[in-house]
Specification:
390 residues; Aspartate Aminotransferase, domain 1; 2 domains; 7-stranded mixed β-sheet; binds pyridoxal-5'-phosphate
């Protein structure tokens, strides 16, 4: 049978029809421990009672009104994100790529407003991933994403991730901003050397540039802090969020200081669906849980246990895994066999993982995962190691 779907994904044959907490159930009724979490999206697992209740309640009241009117749920989410971050203002959209687009528009508009419209270029880093629109593939700079899509959108200069000297040398009279993932996700859970983010902050301050953090994957508690940049004590001027923010409901957000967003005046940006009451209600419900006292402490506790157990596997099976890396529950296992083999074998044994660049298998449990679920995952991975290591 020919598929009615564009074949843009190499999908597995699995289909799920139900989820509960850290588990997914396929259409045959088989249970999987979901340490893929919809690629770091299902931050609170599946069918979280509070999210379900809020979604049901809002669904019976109001879905969409457009940004022609006040949206109280949007005001509330904006207020809470601003209170919990460096930012003064938020713009809501529907995906990570759109949040990045907003960040890039803010950077260009900032310099335009200051009388320097020639400053429109943004410095990005090798191995980056910022989305799949024409502009965000240009920002990411991956040849495999750009091929066949015509002239690459102009305005990006790329240097080696972690290389402050190269970043400094690439800044020119047209540079507007530096954009970076605090930890590269799709690129393979790559953490830059200590001091890198701080160094970028200094470069931006010295050169009048905006610093943009792409926290689409690292944000919303994934690393054990609400935002990954908190670990470094460095604040950006602009930040993109999406993935975990809606717990599975599509939503993106771009946060900024009022200085950075000063020239984003009426008419300069917009989104039909962005910030609608339904999405806002769900994201507020996610925040209810993630901001609860002790929630991120528990994430760090479980992450610590998982990291320790994975390090044990790396030590015991060096022919399968050579390194565990990442922060919190944003974890990468560097594989010595093809990562696809590890991921398939794990899936056959009931554990879902996600591939990443550089032959890495990503381990992305929902933030609500328990230590006993971690033990179950380790037991499966140990079986996988025995199979693949022999
Ligand atoms: C997933 C991701 C994006 C793109 O998000 P979409 O919702 O797929 O557009 C951008 N940046 C990072 C770091 C991501 O992980």
């Amino acid at each position: 049978m020919t598929s009615p779907l564009m074949p843009t994904y190499a999908r597995s044959d699995l289909a799920f029809d139900r989820g509960e907490g850290a588990y997914l159930f396929d259409t045959q009724g088989r249970r999987y421990l979901d340490f893929a979490a919809g690629v770091a999206v299902n931050s609170l697992g599946h069918a979280h009672p509070h999210l379900v209740e809020v979604l049901r309640d809002q669904a019976g009241k109001l879905w969409h009104t457009s940004n022609l009117y006040q949206i109280p749920e949007q005001e509330r989410l904006g207020e809470r994100l601003v209170a919990a971050s460096f930012a003064d203002q938020a713009f809501f959209c529907n995906s990570g790529a759109e949040a990045i687009e907003c960040a890039l528009k803010i950077a260009r508009r900032f310099h335009y407003g200051k009388g320097a419209p020639e400053r429109f270029r943004v410095l990005t880093f090798e191995g980056a991933f910022h989305g799949r629109t024409l502009t965000t593939i240009a920002a990411g700079g991956q040849p495999k994403h750009l091929e066949g899509f015509g002239p690459t959108v102009d305005g990006f200069d790329q240097v080696k991730f972690g290389d402050l000297k190269a970043a400094s040398e690439a800044i020119g009279p047209e540079t507007a901003a530096i954009m970076v993932e605090p930890i590269q996700g799709e690129g393979g859970i790559c953490t830059p050397p200590p001091g890198f983010l701080k160094g970028l902050r200094t470069l931006c301050d010295d050169n009048g540039l905006l610093l943009i953090f792409d926290e689409v994957q690292t944000g919303m508690g994934r690393t054990g802090r609400l935002f990954a940049h908190e670990w470094d004590g460095v604040e950006p001027d602009v930040m993109a969020l999406a993935k975990g923010l809606g717990g599975g409901f599509p939503i993106g957000a771009c946060l900024a200081t009022s200085a950075a967003a000063k020239f984003m005046t009426p008419g300069t940006h917009g989104s039909t669906f962005g910030g609608n009451p339904l999405a806002m209600a769900v994201a507020n419900a996610v925040l209810d849980v993630v901001l609860e006292d002790g929630f991120l402490d528990q994430v760090r506790r479980v992450a610590g246990a998982l990291n320790q157990r994975l390090s044990g596997l790396v030590a015991a099976y060096p022919g399968v895994f050579s390194e565990v890396r990442g922060t919190g529950l944003l974890i990468g296992l560097h594989c010595e066999v093809p990562n696809t083999q590890v991921i398939e074998a794990a899936r056959d044994h009931g554990l879902l993982l996600v591939p990443a660049g550089g032959n890495v298998a990503r381990v992305l449990p929902p933030l609500i995962a328990s230590e006993s679920e971690v033990e179950d995952a380790i037991a499966i991975l140990e079986t996988v190691c025995k199979e693949l290591g022999s």
